[in-house]
Amino acid sequence: MILGITGGTGCGKTTLLRCIARVGGLILDCDEIYHQLLERDDNLLSAIDARFPGVVEKGVLLRKKLGTLVFSDPEALEDLNRITHRAVKAEVLRRLETTPALAAIDAIALFEGGLAELCDVTVAVTAPPEARVARLMARDGISEEYARRRIAAQHDSAWFQARCGWVLENNGSAEAFQEKCLAFLRQLGIIEGQAL
Description:
The protein is an alpha/beta fold. The protein has helices at about 15-20, 30-40, 40-50, 65-70, 75-95, 130-140, 145-150, 155-165, 175-185; strands at about 1-5, 25-30, 55, 60, 105, 120-125, 165-170. About 55% of the residues lie in helices and about 15% in strands. The strands form two sheets. It has a five-stranded parallel beta sheet with strand order 2-5-1-6-7, with helices on both faces.
């Protein structure tokens, strides 16, 4: 079974991924895959640099500089996504060649990147905007303004909910959300009744 997990940044998708990893599922975190590709895929860096001159220095992507450009310009963000989605999907397909019994693809752009078509089940993880801002600031060490710009550059929760077969709302404590994730995996028959 391949689960497609999506939702905006700071919603708590990682909690669901950890639960799946604990039962032996293959985790394909597309954000992590993207960052790994930035380390070793010269073609990807060259394509980004060609479209956004000055954001790559000595073979290293200046992420905040690129973020400042794309999070305030929808056309620039679309161009970046077009470049990155192609590279990430190719790597996801390569990793799925082993045909795992259980895999989870975590991608904000699950649908736009053409990854939803690989999934048996899709789930949107959502959370209140203020909780997302606080999580992003704490997790990434960024300002409130930058966190809000990142969130504003993404689809809202309703967009994800309308496209996915399942929705998990992260609107309580971390422990309560983990229990919600486990209940979801039990419902799908991925785990038995016992706690992980």
